[in-house]
Amino acid sequence: MGRSHPVQLAIASRLVMLLCMSVSDRLLPDFLPGDDVLQFDLRLDNDRTPVACFCLEGHACDPKWATRRLGMRSGVDPPSCAGEQHQSTRRWWLLDKFYSFVLPPVTKWDAARFLTLSADPLARQPPPDNRTILNPGDEGECDSPDESFFDLSEQAHAFFPLLPLVIRGGAALLRWLVPQILLPKTYEGTLALTAILMNMVAFTVAAVSLHNLTVYNLLAVDHPPDKGRKPNTEEKRRSNDIDMFARRTCQMFCFNPAGVFFTAAYSESLFSALTFTGHAIIARGRYRIMTIQTKRKRSFWIAAALVWGLASCARSNGLFASVWILLV
């Protein structure tokens, strides 16, 4: 039972979904969510900052981001370009147009939160001077010098840290492996590109793990043949049925109505990859124990628990994976 089918299906479905998202983003007018909804500026077609400015001060690409960021306050003055991060203005026009076409759709709504946390590691924390001040003579009334930023940092805690960490690390790896001229002309664009690539890899892992989970669970229901004995005709037919059922499961997963959230910079793909991998490890371990291929039951639980622990760092409902320990 090969894995090439779920891999090809997962990659093809993400490319089709990304194309549909990009076309619809160009054809349909954007919904205006209001000023209180955070939006992520890719700066790809922005005249407010120089085109040659790849990295802004205080962002993770800035070598001195920590010291500069601690001295900044949100919403006061737009950050200037980091001194040593100017890139050459020599660009491939067609490549820049391609990035302007495919990157904006993946930055909407909650994706703006994750990408902002990727670009600005300290966005979760109010600045040191952002504390409630008691105005003299106001008899207990309090005033906050930057209330909006405190609200943003408080809301940011609802978005778990694993995805921003993976995107930030992936962007650093991408900048190290790929020539700068082939990447988007801004660090924000590089983060969005990293999110697309990371989600494609994570979604593929999730599809393969779901395929394996389905196969091993169905094999555990049957009585597998003894090792060393050739399977009979009925057992071969049942094996083909199991493989077909696993393929159908992958097809429904890859082309489900919520597929847009597995392509945008959301945590669904990463969470599914980790969760399904943990489930597949347990299913494979149970099958191997049933067929007396191994007696190391504890090793499967340890591996699955580690993967589920990572999943709980991506989304809060990852904690529900512990229910498997009670049920299995």
Short description:
The protein is an all-alpha fold and 328 residues long. Helices cover 54% and strands 1% of the residues.
What do these coordinates show?
- With 328 residues, the protein is mostly helical.
- Helices cover 54% and strands 1% of the residues.
- The protein is built from 11 helices and 2 strands.
- The protein has helices at 4-27, 65-70, 93-102, 110-119, 147-156, 162-177, 187-221, 233-254, 268-290, 297-311, 323-327, and strands at residues 133-134, 142-143.
- Strands 1-2 form a two-stranded antiparallel sheet.
- Helix 1 crosses helix 7 (187-221), helix 6 packs across helix 7 and helix 7 (187-221) runs antiparallel to helix 8.
- The longest helix has 35 residues, at 187-221.
